[in-house]
Amino acid sequence: MSLRFALLALLTSRPMTGYDVSKQFSQSVAHVWHAPDSQIYPELNRMERDGLLESAVVPWGKKGTKKEYAVTEAGVKAFREWMDSPIEIRRQREPAYLKAAYLEWAEPGAARAELKQFRDHWTEHLAMLEATRATLVDRSHPTLARRLEHYDASEWDRIVRYKIFAYDGLIDQARAAITWAERGLLLVEELEGSPSTEPA
Amino acid sequence: MSLRFALLALLTSRPMTGYDVSKQFSQSVAHVWHAPDSQIYPELNRMERDGLLESAVVPWGKKGTKKEYAVTEAGVKAFREWMDSPIEIRRQREPAYLKAAYLEWAEPGAARAELKQFRDHWTEHLAMLEATRATLVDRSHPTLARRLEHYDASEWDRIVRYKIFAYDGLIDQARAAITWAERGLLLVEELEGSPSTEPA
DNA sequence: TGCCACTAACTATAGAGATAGGTAGTTTGT
DNA sequence: ACAAACTACCTATCTCTATAGTTAGTGGCA
Predict the structure, then answer these.
(1) How far is the CA of A57 from the C1' of C12 (A)?
(2) What is the number of domains present in chain B?
(3) Domain range spanning residue B150?
């Protein structure tokens, strides 16, 4: 059910169309919670049906229209309630660690390639996270800027520091993943120097 | 599709009944890939249908029987192929980081409680991981011991070190999560010393 | 003999999520 | 005038996961 609250979180910064939401998602909230637009549109509909959002049809060009969603009071209440409720703990489900545990079954070349792929993915991801973190620190992040408009300047520091805190957590994770993959590469070099032997 | 390969991984150590698998899962592979038995039983059936496993009905007590699954050659082949294929990258989907980014909406008390809950969950999890890691290092881990029987003693070190490597990654993750939660608790103390003010 | 915890093996159902499409209007550049 | 890219909004389908049951035999002990 977190998708619903990720959407509420985003829409508290300003009203948006489904399209806006799906674009914003890939730039900001997605670092924290990813969703494709095939999930976003139906969920927005359901949230409107449940009274958490209200929509206004606004003209777009000559003939076109678009639907802009705004969070209702009930939506704000639901979001606050979720914020105050215990977090759901996610179960471990990460193919990389599963594979790592059985690396004796892999071709040395494949093992190396996979560890590199994993490291490179996280390196890229880390760069994105650090770039976004920087836009939070200097407050140039567009969604953040829109969000701060609703608040008194005395609150800004508090709000921004929570966002940075979230990114710091993600950055730590990414760094840990990269370090781990690099250790893995060294391990494969050490153990698979000669052609691998097969189990009996 | 990783469940299928997690099951294959486990069953390469020795043939097992569905019940064994679901028990073993919670003790070993589950640290790396969690699944409830309502997923395990149907998946084992499908794997048998697909020829990756073969089952033998063995008597149990006076009237009872049980079904023991063993990996077929096709199963070994499928497992090896999966091991050599690129890892699927999981999208970020972690409610804790989502919440952290919007902590200005939470009651200070609730924010503290959640961060503590998160930290305590990971602390517990870390203890379990470290305990399991220790049984790998001294080779007292039962599933590992059964697995090593299929291999020449010269291979043991290699196999064990990959398992330890996987656990090291999980341990790093757990430690990072705990450190992050503790930083969060300090942050909440710093920012929420006085009663929180509401957005305009 | 009766009870209880455990072993064994599921089923049913709903919701979440991934992948892959489709349709129609708008804006921009050539 | 036309194409290409972008905005807007979905739908369909399949698989994956979570939660909560069900049914039946086993082994021990009070």
Answers:
(1) 41
(2) 2
(3) 95-191
